[in-house]
UniProtKB/TrEMBL annotation:
<dbReference type="GO" id="GO:0061522">
    <property type="term" value="F:1,4-dihydroxy-2-naphthoyl-CoA thioesterase activity"/>
</dbReference>
<feature type="domain" description="Thioesterase">
    <location>
        <begin position="56"/>
        <end position="134"/>
    </location>
</feature>
<protein>
    <submittedName>
        <fullName>Uncharacterized protein (TIGR00369 family)</fullName>
    </submittedName>
</protein>
<dbReference type="InterPro" id="IPR029069">
    <property type="entry name" value="HotDog_dom_sf"/>
</dbReference>
<keyword id="KW-0378">Hydrolase</keyword>
<dbReference type="GO" id="GO:0005829">
    <property type="term" value="C:cytosol"/>
</dbReference>
<dbReference type="InterPro" id="IPR003736">
    <property type="entry name" value="PAAI_dom"/>
</dbReference>
<dbReference type="InterPro" id="IPR006683">
    <property type="entry name" value="Thioestr_dom"/>
</dbReference>
<dbReference type="Pfam" id="PF03061">
    <property type="entry name" value="4HBT"/>
</dbReference>
Length: 148
């Protein structure tokens, strides 16, 4: 599957339906599942574990930021034509409450605000299994012609 041949939406739906063990590698590293892939919307989740702990014993902010970056940029990806790539240009995260490392499910949802010719923006939220807000964020992604 080449980025030049399929849209972003098609790419992510293929990964969701039949996830390759090593793609994308970050998914495997932190145990993310791709739960919802729709045009302009992407939902992923992970189960917390002790390895995610910061020195205070709660989930490290970098894990939560990674989940947010993934869901927002993948939401952008769902809006892109074949041959168009992207990268995160800016990421702003607001942490609301700590998440525990005891196996709770964290769910991230990203929604596109705007996709233009050169940039796209999205917003995201991470909630715990009870629906409580853990963090929210915004992103700007730079769009470019992908190298094939």
């Amino acid at each position: 599957m080449s980025i030049a041949d399929v849209t972003g939406l098609e790419t992510l739906r293929r990964v969701q339906a039949d996830p390759p063990a090593d793609f994308p590698p970050i998914r495997q590293l932190i145990g993310m599942t791709f739960d919802v892939v729709e045009p302009g919307r992407f939902v992923a989740s992970l189960t917390t574990r002790p390895e995610y702990a910061n020195p205070m014993g709660t989930v490290h902010g970098g894990i939560i930021a990674t989940l947010l970056d993934t869901v927002m940029s993948c939401a952008v990806h769902t809006t892109l034509a074949a041959g168009v790539g992207y990268t995160t240009l800016e990421l702003k995260v607001n942490y609301v409450r700590p998440a525990q490392t005891d196996g709770e499910t964290l769910t991230g949802e990203g929604v596109v605000i705007h996709t233009g010719r050169r940039t796209a923006t999205a917003e995201g939220r991470v909630t715990d299994a009870s629906g409580r807000l853990i963090a929210h964020a915004t992103t700007t992604c730079m769009l470019f012609e992908a190298a094939v």
